[in-house]
């Protein structure tokens, strides 16, 4: 049985499995995997140098050169012509947008799972290049329990594929990598690859995958610098299905768990003047968090008022610090994030245990299933919200309370914003 993003009622078991490298013991696999050290001062160096300020560039080529460590050429999107794994080795494809543990805001990558899930052997499944390109960067992470390789393929300076959680590299690629030291390092590589060429293996965990097109900027992130200061690829993340050939799509579409468009999911929901979307605790520098020297708990100030990644009709309340832990809730009552504005006054939101349920009424526990719904379990808390401006909001969560028991904020109220006060960091050790 897969034990990653599979049934919120099994969260404690899940987060034990999804160990994080720089984060304290839980979040989604990508956070462990991620260890994408995107500090603007720690980008890999090689034949080409990148300017730390380019993390926030609006020029597509400049931004793409930053994301590839300067190891790219040309511009323009490409067609993705090969499946990432043999089709019989793909059990399901989970969309972007998951919120779980330290993934407080919607995740920006998809999860490819093999048939054995977390019970499959390490290196069980070959992984292939999705199109012609050049492997520009390789990163390695090891938290003492699991190994993850991150591989970036530059198809051009504006169109890039990124793989994460590979359990090993193909020998031809490994021979090109100058091995670093320690449990987390990265290196620039200059290795041309052809569509369908073996680049590595995965097993015992998901393969994380995303595509970046720097000519496109997601409109649902109101203040891009708030994301560029830690994960500069996020605002340029696009839907892979928009680029795969029809032949590839015909093979992989039956593997998608999500049945509501967009099938690849969604990660950007911000609307100016409305509560919907991502928020950051005031004074914590947006997505980067408050500690620019490498905050392992950077997500502690995150808040997301968005929707479930498999059931987008269901609202979720995801917060980075609920009684000391990042926590996700199903929302109860008649709440619409898009209708909460500065004229709404105090708004009470019931918070309940989130349960993903199959069409047969069973808690989703890992089997391939579509049309999954998010259902609210027992009430756990109440949130009190008040937008005080177009990009500011007061928030307080009252554990163990139902909405009828709450009438006003107390001394624990906190102020969130959209990251409009964020600045580009130059010394953080960002972890993806």
Describe this structure in words.
The protein is mainly beta. 8% of the residues lie in helices and 30% in strands. It has helices at 11-17, 29-34, 60-67, 171-174, 225-228, 246-252, and strands at 92-94, 110-113, 125-128, 133-142, 147-154, 159-166, 168-169, 184-193, 198-202, 207-213, 237-238, 277-281, 302-307, 315-322, 325-332, 347-357, 373-389, 392-399, 414-417. The strands form 3 sheets. Strands 1, 2, 4, 5, 6, 8, 10 and 11 form an 8-stranded antiparallel sheet that branches. It has an 8-stranded antiparallel β-barrel with strand order 12-13-14-15-16-17-18-19. Strand 4 and strand 5 (147-154) form a beta hairpin. The longest helix has 8 residues, at 60-67. It is globular, with a radius of gyration of 21 Å. Residues 3-47 and 427-432 have low confidence and may be disordered.
State the assembly state of the protein chains. Answer: single chain
The secondary-structure element order is HHHEEEEEEEHEEEHEHEEEEEEEE
Task: Give the CA-based shape.
Answer: globular
Query: Which regions contain 5 or more consecutive residues with pLDDT less than 50?
Result: 3-47, 427-432
Helicity, as a percent range: under 10%
Termini separation (Å)?
A: 26 Å
| Main sheet makeup | 8 strands, antiparallel
The Rg value, from CA coordinates, equals: 21 Å
Number of helices: 6
Question: What's the total number of strands?
Answer: 19
């Amino acid at each position: 049985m897969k034990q990653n993003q599979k049934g919120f009622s099994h969260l404690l078991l899940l987060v034990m499995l999804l160990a994080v490298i720089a984060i304290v013991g839980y979040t989604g696999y990508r956070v462990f995997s991620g260890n994408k050290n995107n500090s603007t001062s720690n980008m890999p160096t090689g034949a080409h140098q990148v300017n730390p300020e380019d993390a926030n560039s609006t020029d597509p080529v400049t931004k793409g050169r930053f994301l590839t460590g300067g190891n790219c050429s040309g511009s323009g999107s490409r067609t993705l012509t090969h499946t990432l794994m043999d089709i019989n080795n793909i059990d399901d494809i989970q969309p972007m947008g998951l919120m779980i543990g330290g993934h407080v805001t919607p995740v920006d990558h998809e999860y490819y799972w093999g048939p054995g899930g977390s019970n499959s052997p390490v290196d069980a499944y070959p992984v292939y290049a999705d199109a012609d390109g050049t492997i520009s960067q390789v990163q390695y992470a090891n938290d003492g329990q699991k190994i993850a390789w991150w591989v970036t393929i530059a198809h051009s300076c504006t169109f890039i594929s990124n793989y994460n959680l590979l359990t090993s590299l193909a020998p031809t690629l490994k021979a090109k990598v100058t091995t670093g030291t320690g449990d987390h390092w990265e290196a620039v590589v200059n290795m041309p690859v052809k569509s369908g060429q073996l680049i590595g293996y995965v097993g015992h965990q998901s393969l994380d995958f995303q595509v970046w097109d720097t000519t496109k900027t997601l409109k649902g992130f109101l203040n891009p610098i708030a994301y560029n200061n830690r994960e500069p690829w996020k605002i340029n993340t696009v839907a892979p299905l928009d680029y795969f050939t029809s032949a590839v799509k015909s093979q992989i579409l039956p593997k998608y768990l999500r049945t509501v468009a967009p099938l690849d999911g969604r990660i950007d929901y911000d609307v100016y003047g409305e509560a919907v979307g991502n928020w950051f605790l005031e004074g914590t520098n947006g997505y980067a968090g408050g500690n620019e020297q490498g905050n392992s708990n950077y997500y502690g100030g995150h808040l997301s008022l968005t929707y479930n990644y498999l059931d987008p009709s269901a609202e979720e309340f995801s917060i980075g610090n609920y009684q000391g832990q990042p926590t996700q809730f199903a929302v109860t009552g008649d709440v619409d994030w898009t209708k909460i504005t500065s004229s709404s006054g105090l708004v009470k939101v019931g918070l309940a245990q989130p349960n993903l349920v199959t069409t047969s009424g069973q808690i989703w526990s890992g089997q391939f299933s579509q049309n999954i719904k998010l259902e609210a379990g027992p009430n756990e808390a109440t949130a009190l919200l008040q937008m005080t401006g177009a990009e500011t909001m007061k928030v307080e969560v009252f554990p163990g309370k139902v909405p009828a028991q709450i009438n006003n904020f107390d001394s624990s109220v906190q102020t969130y914003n959209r990251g409009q006060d964020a600045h580009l960091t130059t010394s953080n050790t960002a972890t993806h």
